[in-house]
């Protein structure tokens, strides 16, 4: 199970053996609809004197999605948003525990350095 969670970056949604009620309960920040976050923040805003630092998460951002999202935040009366977090354009290749020895770097040799007591070394004199 822990290897599956590592492979899927902490998301339980693609793991088939997890029941649907648990999948609905445990979602990563990128799996929660940003419109819902804005709606919840707009309801909290009534009791906040200053601005709330609301982070928004989008797995696949586009200009239209961003425009719609920030217009919704403005219409709902949010004073500010904080960061817009997105997934990287490229993802690192996933590896599992079975091939970690194949991909591991070889042990390096001790660094080649001269002894400070070497009378022939120009840098040490």
TrEMBL record:
Any GO molecular function: ATP binding
UniProt keyword terms in alphabetical order: Oxidoreductase
Cellular component terms per the entry's GO annotation: ribonucleoside-diphosphate reductase complex
Gene Ontology BP annotations: deoxyribonucleotide biosynthetic process
InterPro entries per the UniProt record, alphabetical: RNR_lg_C, Rrm1
Keyword set includes Oxidoreductase: yes
Pfam family, one: Ribonuc_red_lgC
Family in the record: Belongs to the ribonucleoside diphosphate reductase large chain family.
The enzyme's E.C. designation: 1.17.4.1
Protein source organism: uncultured Thiotrichaceae bacterium
Name of protein: Ribonucleotide reductase of class Ia (Aerobic), alpha subunit (EC)
Residue ranges of every copy of the Ribonucleotide reductase large subunit C-terminal domain listed in the record: 10-84
Broad enzyme group: oxidoreductase
């Amino acid at each position: 199970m822990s290897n599956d969670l590592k492979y899927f970056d902490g998301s339980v949604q693609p793991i088939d053996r997890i029941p649907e009620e648990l999948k609905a309960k445990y979602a990563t920040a990128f799996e929660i609809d940003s419109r819902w976050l804005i709606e919840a923040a707009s309801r909290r805003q009534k009791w906040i004197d200053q601005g709330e630092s609301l982070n928004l998460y989008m797995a696949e951002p586009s200009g239209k999605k961003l425009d719609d999202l920030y217009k919704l935040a403005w219409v709902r009366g949010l004073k500010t948003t904080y960061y817009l977090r997105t997934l990287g354009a490229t993802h690192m290749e996933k590896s599992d525990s079975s091939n970690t020895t194949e991909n591991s770097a070889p042990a390096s040799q001790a660094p080649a350095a001269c002894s400070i007591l070497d009378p022939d070394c120009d840098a040490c004199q």
